[in-house]
TrEMBL record:
Pfam families according to UniProt: TPR_11, TPR_8
TPR repeat windows: 215-248, 283-316
Keyword Plastid: no
Biased composition (Polar residues): 194-207
Name of the molecule in the record: G8481 protein
Length: 334
């Protein structure tokens, strides 16, 4: 197998107003195993804010807690500094590669430091994990990718956007696999504690694979159309999503972006207004309303929105640059 090539994988942003994306990555025979981890490590390094002193202290305490007590005296500040600056990618096997499935697995990749930087919850990644039988709360951006690995050979395989659905065959296979593993683990526990009460081995209800609602399905299809550059189709699908569910702030925000791309600033402002009524802290909606107001000549309103976005996300480069440009333009016109 080990040859040069390219594979597809999927990006699941923590920000639910951002669409899922199908990405591709080229590899060589030498870096096929590590290429994705290197790419994702760089993504996480660039996308998260610098850790606060409190977050660093919390991370150091956890690192020390994992070191045997007799060895802690050998750990100095420099070593701790290096450890907290490494930035690692956590790989979670949603579908493990085994003989039964031809040694083909699907992994969820997350930022190992997400909890230390108080990253946003990722509801879409958490839902996919839950549908696979993994009850976990994913934080920060996440990625999905497929691999072939039989311990002798390793190959990156394509994982596409259309497979990110609760009804996908791989999800059902993962749910069955993880349920079987859970039952096996419970059986081992029962055998090891035969004298314990019978209730100790009681099984919990298996995770159910839930389908997307019609509104969610329309929004995800709109995201795919937008990614392909079919703005009119994306507009129709986002409209379908909000007609199905008037409380879906992300669909209004995404439709605002499409309206901006189509030069329909007034419609974009109206959609952003609706999104912000539903979720006043949605930064993407603030940025899109600001852009619409700027296009409509409402400079003061645009400045107000950019400032509100920066209050919520002080490190938001888009808001900072736009605010700087607007203020410079205002000074020149005086």
């Amino acid at each position: 197998m080990g040859k040069n090539g390219k594979f597809q994988y999927v990006y699941i942003p923590a920000d639910v107003s951002e669409p899922l994306q199908e990405l591709s990555l080229s590899y060589t025979e030498e870096d096929q195993v590590q290429c994705l981890l290197h790419k994702l490590r760089e993504h996480f390094r660039q996308s998260k804010p610098a850790k606060t002193a409190e977050q660093l202290q919390r991370q150091r305490q956890q690192l020390l807690a994992n070191v045997p007590e007799e060895s802690r005296a050998q750990i100095n500040e420099q070593m701790l500094g290096v450890a907290t600056d490494l930035g690692t990618v956590e790989s979670i096997a949603l579908l493990s590669n085994s003989r039964d499935n031809g040694f083909t697995g699907v992994n969820l990749y997350c930022d190992d430091e997400a909890s230390f930087v108080d990253a946003l919850p990722n509801p879409r990644a958490s839902e996919i994990a839950f549908c696979c039988g993994k009850q976990m709360q994913v934080q920060g951006d996440a990625f999905l990718a497929r691999v072939f690995d039989n311990e002798d050979d390793f190959e990156r395989l394509d994982f596409t956007l259309k497979e990110v659905t609760s009804s996908a065959p791989w999800v059902k296979e993962a749910a069955a696999q993880n349920e079987a593993k859970r039952k096996g683990d419970q059986a081992d526990t029962i055998l090891q504690s035969m004298q314990a009460p019978a209730q100790q081995g009681k099984q919990s209800s298996p995770a159910e694979v839930t389908e997307l609602t019609p509104a969610e399905a329309a929004r995800e299809s709109g995201n795919a159309a937008f990614k392909k550059g079919d703005l009119q189709k994306a507009l129709e699908l986002y409209t379908e999503a909000v007609e199905q569910d008037r409380s879906m702030a992300a669909a209004y925000s995404n439709r605002a972006l499409v309206n901006l791309k189509l030069g329909q600033a007034a419609a974009a402002e109206a959609d952003a207004n609706q999104a912000l009524q539903l979720d006043p802290k949605m930064v993407k909606a603030l940025l899109r309303r600001a852009a619409a107001r700027k296009a409509l000549g409402q400079t003061e309103g645009a400045v107000e929105d950019y400032r509100a976005a920066m209050k919520l996300q002080p490190n938001n480069k888009e808001a900072a640059q736009a605010l700087q440009d607007l203020q410079a333009s205002k000074e020149l016109s005086q």
